[in-house]
Amino acid sequence: MGRLVVIEGLDGAGKRTLAEGLTKALHEQGASVATLAFPRYGRSVHADLIREALHHGHGDLVDSVYGMALLYALDRRAAADDIAADLKWHDVVLLDRYVASNAAYGAARLRQDADGEFVKWVREVEIARFGLPVPDAQILLRVAPEIAAERAEHRARSEADRAKDAFESDDDLQSRCAAVYDQLAAASWLSAWHVVDGTGRFGATELARLIVHPG
């Protein structure tokens, strides 16, 4: 079985760039890699409903923290068989966002900490009830919320299909989410975490070594 590795971080942290660099470094070390990003826009009805709600569709759906979180969870549940198959055939399955993203953003929206009821609920639904595989390692790409916001704004201006959504436009939410992410990493929530400075060099080669040869 391969190792399930997750990259987490704020919108605009640089997760896609790190995923590309880490995939290249893993290949250079002889590891086969499968990648997947959540939400699976264009591939999942749940993900498409999320995008529409974040851009003011479906009435007040976006206002429901639990309703939105359940859509994120259902998107991952629908991908569970694909993840399991990839784990059988690849050394590493690298995910851009996973269960911790749901926990961090929902807790931040409710102004709870990582030890609050919402994070417990996410774990119960996604891991215990839906049976999603537990990550072997999680990477927190940490950047200051204001830097992440600047990057998200630049992306919205330069990419026609990347307009900022309701969560990305809420700077206070991003700050609270960053704090919850730090708490999840400190508590080794679900698995061990590696914290990476998103404002400098990502150190993809060293991260790849840690993933292939943990401990």
From TrEMBL:
Its EC number is 2.7.4.9. Phosphorylation of dTMP to form dTDP in both de novo and salvage pathways of dTTP synthesis. Pfam families: Thymidylate_kin. Residues 7-186 form the Thymidylate kinase-like domain. SUPFAM superfamilies: P-loop containing nucleoside triphosphate hydrolases (SSF52540). InterPro entries: P-loop_NTPase, Thymidylate_kin-like_dom, Thymidylate_kinase. NCBIfam families: PRK07933.1 (NF005923). HAMAP family: Thymidylate_kinase. Keywords: ATP-binding, Kinase, Nucleotide biosynthesis, Nucleotide-binding, Transferase. Belongs to the thymidylate kinase family. Transmembrane segments: none annotated. GO terms for molecular function: dTMP kinase activity. This is Thymidylate kinase. The gene is tmk. PANTHER family: THYMIDYLATE KINASE, UMP-CMP KINASE 2, MITOCHONDRIAL. Signal peptide: none annotated. It comes from the Bacteria. It is an enzyme of class 2 (transferase). It catalyses: dTMP + ATP = dTDP + ADP.
